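User: Please predict the structure of the protein below. I'd like the answer in structure-token form so I can feed it into my own downstream comparison script.

Assistant: Understood. Taking the following sequence of 206 residues as input:
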Amino acid sequence: YTKMVDKYEAKKYVANIIGEQYIIPTLGVWKKFEDIKFEDLPSQFVLKPTHTSGNVFVCKNKDNIEYRELKKEVDKWMERKYYYLHREWPYKNIKPRIIAETYIENKNEIGLRDYKFMCFNGKVKCSFVCSSRNSKEGLHVDFYDLEWNKMPFTRHYPNSSEDIKKPINYEQMIKLSEKLSLNIPFVRVDFYEANGKIYFGELTFY
């Protein structure tokens, strides 16, 4: 479980089960901010810690980076003891590192949607979609059954007002989720769909 929630190790774990083609490429991994070789990174990339949840820096133009402010943010990430905050034991022994990933965008949408599959003992029971994450209105969450019928409830965040189209690869995402969740009492498997291609997001137990 510790490997499965480690943002770096999870990629290797998942690639071994469903294949490398679903993994967002890693551009680098470092122990501290000072080690990051920004000159080797492309103009657009995503930076995040391996040992927490919810921390991310999305760079859409490297020329606009305020390095002093970014260092403060990254240093806070590295000091964060996620296990002691939420008592989610898989996070306790993760080695704190920083990774950079390829920036993924969907040409037909503003921002990526998260497709999250609720898996019980290797079976998907429903999914939910996170959209408008970086909009003024804030995050919207919509639940769908396996036939892509909208489910009549909310969780933490309001439903969106839009009619979200079923992802092209929805059935394939379900198959991959069930493969990754085999023999696990509960795990949420997250994917993105960008330009017709599936990308693995993360595994979440709690």
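That's the full token string. The mean pLDDT is 92.
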